[in-house]
Amino acid sequence: MTWLADASRTVTTGSAQQAVGYPSLFLLVLIGALVPVVPTGALVSSAAVVAFHRTAPLSLAFVFATASAAAFCGDIALYWLGRRGMRSKNGSRWLEAIRARAPEERLAQAREKLAEHGVAVLVLSRLVPAGRIPVMLACLMAEWPLRRFARGNLPACLAWAATYQVIGILGGSLFREPWEGVAVAVALTVVIGVAPGVWRRVRAAD
Description:
Helices cover 83% and strands 0% of the residues. It has 9 helices and no strands. The chain starts with a helix and ends with a helix. By secondary structure, it is mainly α.
C-alpha cells in the first residue's frame, strides 16, 4: 500500500500549497492594483506556469478566477478612494498618487479617447502597459459613477487575467521544469511592460 500512502501525501501537499497559494495570489494582485509596485502580470503568469504543470485545467481556472477577482476588487477600491479625493476640498493622498502616475500627455490622450469610445477604452487600458492609471483618472475627472466604472472594469480585468495567463501557459508548455517556465513568463511580462516606455523615449530622442 506504499503507492496509496505516496498518493495521499501528494494530494495533501498539493492541497496545502493551493490553500496558501491562491490567497497569496489574491492578496498580492490586490495590493498591486492599489499600489502598482508589485509586478502583478508576472505574478499571474508565474502562477499559470505552476498550475499548468500540476492539475490543469482546474488549477488554471482557479488562477484565472483569483487574479481577475483581485484585480477587480483592487481597481474598484482605488477608484472609490479617488472619488472620495475628488469630492474632498483638501484632496487625498490616494488621488495625488493617481495623478502622479498619470503624465499630462497620457492623461490628455486618455480623456480624449474616453470621450470618443467610452467603456471600450477602459477595457483596453488594462492591456496596455501603464495605461490603467491615466484612464482611471480620466474616468474620475469625467465624474463616472462607481457603478459605471465597475461595469467597464469587469471585462477589463477578465481580459487582463486571461492575457497574462496565456503568457504563462506558453512559457510553461515550452519547458518540463516549472521554474524554467516561470523565468520565461517573468521575462516576457517585463519586456511587455518596459517596451512601450523605451519606444516613447526613442521617438522623443528622434
